Amino acid sequence: MRSPYGLDIIESCLTCKMREDYLFCNLSAPSMKGLESIKSTAAYPKGAILFVEGQNPRGIFVLCHGRAKLSTSSADGKTIILKIAEPGEILGLSATVSGKAYEVTAELMEPSQANFITRQDFLNFLRDNGDAALRVAEQLSQNYHTAYEEIRSLGLSHSASEKLAKLLLEWAQDGKNKDGKGKDGKAKDGKDKGEVRLTVTLTHEEIAQLIGTSRETVTRALADLKRKQLVQVKGSTVVIRNRAALEKLAGS
Amino acid sequence: MSHTLTEEVHLTMPLGELFGHMQPETLAHLEKITVLQRFAAKSVLFREGRPSTGVFLVRSGRVKLSLHCSHGKSLVVQFAGPGEPLGLGATISARPYEVTAEATAPCEVAFLPRRQFLQFLADHPTVSLDLVKLLCQDVDGAYDRVRSLRQR
């Protein structure tokens, strides 16, 4: 189907080609049918906000295409990006299950498709489909793991350069795991050993929110990495030129 | 040091309340797979990074959860008390334990071995939703911690 933004709209979960790759979506046939009957599909433009921190939970969004920025504001009014959600993830899960207000704001970073399921439908669905509930439990364990990784790296006061180096290495690693698709923040292996090419569409401001520092510090830290010839930056392309040195800087 | 008791264990609180309103036969199954363990103060229930062997449900006492940061510094993330299941996420996803759990006072713990626990979940799909609720609490707690660390 032709659609704005070149989005390939997935009309039915039953025929979705990505299903098997996504943790939640790969369900048994009866559960899949149940899911199909309670979800509603919509396409959203870049910058659309699915839900806002503090809002009563209406339900969950299963992200089919695109990426979403999950952010929260700190006591002093700063925006903190907790996570960038990838396709296949369920957004608003914890709030929907517990009935407490959404803990984060979910803003789409690119034109996206998401399937919405109302809170009551979703809870009934989980009650009736044990396998789906287990999938959800697995995603929660994953979220839990990510949060703890974050705590691990935050527990120690890193310099901004260290944190930036870590972030770049994480992206390089993510890209490798996904066969170097070369999407946003994803890596393509260069010809030379130790050289990884990343496409980063995040602004310096957004990177700052990810690693908990200021926009100026990110710009400075990146300039520092360039000067040391660890990375090369051309537009949205970041080439990691000396991975070993970057790893040393990140202290891993 | 832990002592595994071989005699039959009857768990009313907190196991019975762990998964909401359980049918008597569901509770009976859960009791059957439970191993009661006692830990002295300062003994370790499980260690961060080690493969998960199961869920530890605290019945009495107090347990300190801590983790090692990138450069070896130790950080206490939480103190857990009676009624709290530990190692749930790691057990379900077959991941290593995220934290080290150390008893700070003598503890009584109901241990649910991994394989039996997963079988239990498969046999009683109705408890899965309650499991999801428990995990949500864990995730919320972890993100609260991230928030407060970011603000420092």
Provide an overview of this structure:
The complex is a heterodimer of chains A (252) and B (152). Chain A folds into 2 domains: 4-154, Jelly Rolls; 160-250, Orthogonal Bundle (Arc Repressor Mutant, subunit A), CATH 1.10.10.10. Chain A is built from 8 helices and 12 strands. Chain A has helices spanning 29-38, 93-98, 119-128, 130-154, 160-177, 204-211, 215-227, 243-250; strands spanning 40-44, 49-51, 59-65, 68-73, 79-85, 90-91, 105-108, 112-118, 186-189, 196-199, 231-234, 237-240. In chain A, helix 3 crosses helix 4, helix 5 (160-177) packs across helix 8 (243-250) and helix 6 crosses helix 7. The termini of chain A are far apart. Residues 177-186 of chain A have low confidence and may be disordered. With 152 residues, chain B is α+β, with helices and mostly antiparallel strands. Chain B has a single domain, classed as Jelly Rolls. Chain B has helices at residues 15-18, 24-33, 88-93, 114-123, 128-150, and strands spanning 2-4, 35-39, 44-46, 54-60, 63-68, 74-80, 85-86, 100-103, 107-113. In chain B, the strands form 2 sheets. A 5-stranded antiparallel β-sheet of chain B has the order 1-2-9-4-7. In chain B, strands 3-8-5-6 form a 4-stranded antiparallel β-sheet, with no helix packed on it. In chain B, strand 5 (63-68) and strand 6 (74-80) form a beta hairpin. Chain A binds chain B through residues 72, 74-76, 80, 82, 93-94, 97-98, 100, 103, 123, 126-127, 129-131, 133-134, 136-138, 140-145, 147-148, 150-156, 158, 212, 251-252, and chain B through 67-71, 73, 75, 77, 88-90, 92-93, 95, 98-99, 121-122, 124-126, 128-129, 131-133, 135-140, 142-143, 145-147, 149-151.
